[in-house]
């Protein structure tokens, strides 16, 4: 897999560093995935992982590793994972060029 197929923004990497420090665990990695559902057909998910699965693609920003499983990868190629703080709260977001429609909250999409 092309190591640059997905990008973890500096903002997102910095947030992961902050969360790792607050948890006291430098092994934490950001896992990004796609699941069925949501108002547009697919939903994005984020969690933290301590280990890499066999089918994971790995993407780096400095010392921060982002993992994407092989099923989710096909929907996320070319995407940028970012972190935003604003009036509507703080969250990880995905700028996905493959999404043809998205919902207002930005957490679901269709292809």
TrEMBL record:
Gene3D superfamilies: HesB-like domain (2.60.300.12). Signal peptide: none annotated. The keyword Endoplasmic reticulum does not apply. Iron-sulfur cluster binds at residues 39, 103, 105. Its cofactor is iron-sulfur cluster. GO terms for molecular function: 2 iron, 2 sulfur cluster binding; 4 iron, 4 sulfur cluster binding; iron ion binding. SUPFAM superfamilies: HesB-like domain. Pfam families: Fe-S_biosyn (PF01521). Binds 1 iron-sulfur cluster per subunit. Homodimer. Belongs to the HesB/IscA family. HAMAP family: Fe_S_insert_ErpA. This is Iron-sulfur cluster insertion protein ErpA. The lineage of its organism: Bacteria, Pseudomonadati, Pseudomonadota, Gammaproteobacteria, Moraxellales.
